[in-house]
Each structure stands twice: as C-alpha cells, then as structure tokens.
Design a protein that fits this description.
Domain Fibrinogen C-terminal: 211-425
Pfam families: Fibrinogen_C
Largest sheet: 9 strands, antiparallel
Coiled coil: 104-134
CATH architecture of the largest domain: Alpha-Beta Complex
Oligomer: single chain
CATH class of the largest domain: Alpha Beta
Bound molecules: 2-acetamido-2-deoxy-beta-D-glucopyranose
Order of helices and strands: HEEEEHEEEHEEHEEEEEHE
Distance between the termini: 179 Å
Number of strands: 15
Signal peptide: 1-25
Strand content: 15-25%
Keywords: Coiled coil, Disulfide bond, Signal
CATH topology of the largest domain: Gamma Fibrinogen, Chain A, domain 1
Length: 426
C-alpha cells in the first residue's frame, strides 16, 4: 500500500467519529453523548456502537463493488454522510486494508525468503571458508611434500654424481690395472723363458758336477795350470768345491782359500761362519777353518800369500809348511814353515796362535778383543802384524781395522789379497 493512500485512510478513520457526531446533532437536539464507540458491521448492516479498538479489522470479508459516497460539505463544515455511504466507504478501506495485509504478508514472506536465502548464502560462505581452509592446509602439506621431493631429487643428483665419479675412478684404475696386467703378463712370459734357460744351464752344470764328482780329487794339483772351480773329496768329509788357480806366478795346482777384491763381502763374521766358510768362490770368500784343517792335515801343504798395493805393486809371502789344527784346538796355526818372498814374514808372530773371532777371543791380550780391535778374524796374539780378514777400504788408509801386512810398518791397507795352499810336492 502506498503511503499516500494509507494516510488518506487514516484521515477518514479520524473523520468518521466526527461526522457521526454531526449526524446526531442533526437528528437529536444537541445530545452531548460521545458516539466514538459505534461500529458498523458490514455483514448484517447494523449500527452497533461499541469500543472500536477491539474490532478484528483483518477478518472482514470484502465486497467487490464499493459505491462512491457523496460528501456534502456545508458552510458550518459539517459533513453529511449516510450510513450506507459510510459502510461503502468502510468496505473500500477494509478491502484496501485486506489488500495491504496481503501485500505485507507477501513482503514478510519475501523477507523470510530473503533471510533464508541470506542464511543459505551464509552457509555457503561458511562452507566455502571451510573448503578454502582445507584447501590451504592441503596446499601447505602439498608444498611440504614438494619440498621433500625437491630435497630428495637434489640428494639423488648428488649421489648420482658421486657414483659417476666413482665409476670414472674405477674405470681409470681398471685401465691402469689392464696395462699392469699386460706388463706383468709380458714379464711373466720373459721370466718363464728365463726359467727354462736357467733350468737348461742348471742341468748342464749338474752334468758337469757329476762328471766332476766322478773325477773328484783331494787337491787342485791334478788341475795343473788351469783356473776353475772343482770338487775336492777328503776321507770322512763331505765333498766341497774350491777355486783352483794354477795360472799365477806361484805356479800350478794351487787351491784358493781366501780372496779379497772389492769389499763386496762382509768379513766381520762370527766363529761359526769362519768355521763353515762364506762368500762367493768366484769373488770374495773364505774357505772355512774346518776345510782348512782337513786339507792341511790330510797331507802337508805350503802357503802362498799374494798381496797387491793400491799403487799396483804386487808382493808375495811363501811358507813351506802350513797346518791348521782342529776346532777343539781352536783352529790353531800349528805349523808355519820357512818364509820366502818380497813382502815380509808378517805371519810369523801368529805361529802357534789360536784363531779368534769377535765372539771367540783366543788372543794373548786379557783385556782386549783383538778381533774387535782390528775388525777381523785371525790368529791374533798381541794383537797382529797381519790382518787379511780386516775391513776392506777402497783406497789406501792407515786404519788398524784395514787389510794390512806388516812389511810397510804402518797399517797401510791393501787393494787385493789372495791366500792359496798346495800340497808339498817334494
Ligand atoms: C448482527 O451481528 C451480530 C454480531 O455478529 C450478531 O450477534 C447479530 O445477530 C447480527 N444481527 C442480524 C440481524 O443478523
Ligand atoms: C470500551 O472502551 C472503554 C475505554 O477504553 C472501556 O472502559 C469499556 O469497557 C469498553 N467497552 C467494551 C464493551 O469493551
Ligand atoms: C480471523 O479471526 C480468527 C479468530 O476470530 C483468527 O483465528 C484468524 O486468524 C483471523 N484471520 C486473519 C486473516 O486475521
Ligand atoms: C544477511 O546476513 C548479514 C550477515 O550475516 C546481515 O548483516 C544482513 O542484515 C542479512 N540480511 C538480511 C536481509 O537478513
Ligand atoms: C599454495 O602454496 C603456494 C606456496 O606454498 C602459494 O604460492 C600459493 O599461493 C598457495 N595457493 C593457495 C591457493 O593457497
Ligand atoms: C645417497 O647416498 C647416501 C650415502 O651413500 C645414502 O645414505 C642416501 O640414502 C642416498 N640417498 C638417496 C636418495 O639415494
Ligand atoms: C690379465 O692378463 C691375463 C693374461 O693375459 C688374462 O687372461 C686376463 O684376462 C687379464 N685380466 C684382466 C682383468 O684383464
Ligand atoms: C808402491 O808402494 C810401495 C810401498 O809404499 C813402494 O815400495 C813401491 O815402490 C810403490 N810402487 C810404485 C810403483 O809406486
């Protein structure tokens, strides 16, 4: 209902009591009773004056065709209106009111609908918020998973690079190994050849030795002026090899029993080694005291000592007899025959002396180890006028530890030395 018409209706409602009063004033003479409580019932058309306030306005049935009322406005500003007119008028307003009520209902309904829509909207908003929250949470966890995957990928990349490096290194080593293997294979082939060659040589040598064995002698005499290594056999003694040298100025049939040449063999050795002998028969060596004992006691021997100085001068000392005692006798120099030569009789003072090594002190000094003092092994007395098993010096010195022969008075060291024996022929 429009505001304007609503206002008009209100105005009319106010006008009604006023007109009723006017009518009363016309019909009854100046009756002063208030007529405000009169109500018109449209149904049975009676004028029932009661309290208007209690009237059920909206429950009125509406007649569809309202009649227009006529208003007569007099000079005294009284309005003359018939009861029917009034009823018509009321009908009109009631209709209007009913219409309005319907309209209001509709509006209210509309509002209800809107509110319910608003509520639905709110629910949707809420739902959306929840969904959004869930989505965000999922996004966060998804981001975490992504980060983890990233880290994993990084780690895998690092690992794969490490593996690649290792693989490269392995390949590198593999190539080196293959090269080495090839070299080794070649070396092994060479060695096999060499072994075959040496086996052949050994067989030859063995054959030679067997021949030698058959031709074993008790001295180098049978080998005359030749030079070579030969087998010596003596009674009750294991056969042994010796260098035979008949090519020197001393003549034929000599057996080399000691040789110093270059210092390649250490001569500072103990009793046991001097007993057995040591070194190389083709180079520096000592034959061994036991063999010396056996040889010189089996038959009479002479001794030839060959000396060479650093200035190239050669000297010799020849002894007509040479006998070495048993180990029980301390390998004593039991017999030393007459001296001949151009060196000196430097072995003379050692006659009847026992052999001494640093670990077997047989010398004449009580508080001195001559073997230690002269760094050698000899038939020391007080201590020595000769020291052919001393320390080898590569140049001439005056060292008491050196190889010396007393002819030159100081300890002048010698360049090379050889001791040889030969059975006495006369
Ligand atoms: C008029 O209406 C009143 C109230 O509805 C009712 O009590 C009364 O009987 C009615 N009169 C006639 C004549 O219908
Ligand atoms: C009418 O209204 C007056 C004042 O409002 C009240 O005192 C009276 O009881 C009412 N009459 C009826 C019949 O309701
Ligand atoms: C009419 O009045 C009755 C009681 O007299 C009530 O139950 C009903 O709701 C009313 N209708 C309207 C439209 O006001
Ligand atoms: C719709 O809801 C909002 C807040 O939830 C409220 O402020 C607004 O007044 C509501 N509208 C209606 C038409 O109910
Ligand atoms: C999801 O997270 C990423 C980074 O963590 C961000 O950039 C993006 O805006 C987020 N998306 C939503 C819909 O929250
Ligand atoms: C990478 O290597 C390390 C050690 O070798 C190992 O502990 C780790 O699990 C590896 N990472 C992956 C992703 O394989
Ligand atoms: C090493 O060399 C031998 C002989 O040539 C060959 O049989 C073997 O396969 C080689 N090994 C490798 C790992 O190359
Ligand atoms: C070598 O030295 C010895 C002893 O000192 C000496 O008698 C000899 O004459 C020297 N020989 C030469 C060739 O110098």
């Amino acid at each position: 209902m429009e505001k304007e018409s609503f206002f008009i209706m209100l105005m009319l409602l106010l006008v009604i009591p006023w007109t009723l009063q006017g009518k009363a004033a016309v019909s009854s003479v100046k009756k002063k009773d208030p007529v405000k409580d009169c109500v018109i019932d449209t149904k049975n058309k009676t004028n029932n004056c009661q309290n208007t306030t209690a009237l059920p306005i909206f429950n009125q049935t509406v007649t569809p065709k309202p009649k227009l009322a006529e208003f007569q406005i007099e000079q005294r500003k009284t309005i003359s209106i018939t009861k029917d007119d009034l009823n018509d008028l009321l009908d009109v307003y009631m209709t209007k009111l009913a219409e309005n009520a319907v309209a209001i209902n509709e509006k209210e309904h509309e509002i209800d609908q809107l509110q319910s829509l608003n509520k639905t909207e709110e629910d949707h908003m809420k739902k959306y918020q929840e969904l959004s929250d869930a989505c965000n949470a999922q996004n966060v966890s998804f981001a975490t998973v992504l980060n983890e995957k990233d880290a994993l990928i990084k780690n895998l990349r690092i690992n794969s690079s490490i593996i690649e490096t290792r693989l490269k290194r392995k390949q590198h080593f593999m190539s080196i190994y293959k090269k080495l293997n090839a070299t080794n294979t070649a070396t092994i082939r060479d060695l096999k050849k060499r072994v075959l060659y040496l086996e052949a040589r050994l067989k030859e040598r063995k054959d030679d030795l067997l021949a030698d064995w058959e031709a074993a002698t008790d001295s180098c005499l049978p080998h005359g002026n030749s030079f070579g290594i030969h087998l010596i056999q003596l009674p009750d003694f294991r056969p042994f090899l010796v260098p035979c040298d008949g090519s020197t100025v001393a003549g034929a049939g000599w057996t080399v029993i000691q040789r110093r040449l270059d210092g390649s063999v250490d001569f500072y050795r103990n009793w046991d080694e001097y007993r057995k002998g040591f070194g190389k028969l083709t180079g520096e060596f000592f034959i061994g005291l036991e063999k010396l004992h056996r040889l010189t006691t089996f038959q009479p021997h002479e001794l030839y000592v060959s000396l060479k100085l650093f200035n190239g001068t050669k000297r010799y000392a020849l002894y007509e007899d040479f006998v070495i005692g048993s180990e029980a006798e301390g390998y004593e120099l039991k017999l030393l025959g007459h001296y001949h030569g151009d060196a000196s009789d430097a072995l003379r003072t050692h006659d009847k002396m026992k052999f001494s090594t640093y670990d077997r002190d047989h010398d004449e000094f009580t508080h001195m180890n001559c073997a230690e003092h002269h760094h050698g092994a000899w038939w020391y007395d007080f201590c020595s006028r000769s020291n052919l098993n001393g320390k080898y010096f590569k140049r001439q010195t005056d060292d008491a530890q050196g190889i010396f022969w007393e002819r030159w008075y100081s300890y002048q060291s010698l360049k090379s030395v050889e001791m040889l024996i030969r059975p006495k022929q006369s």
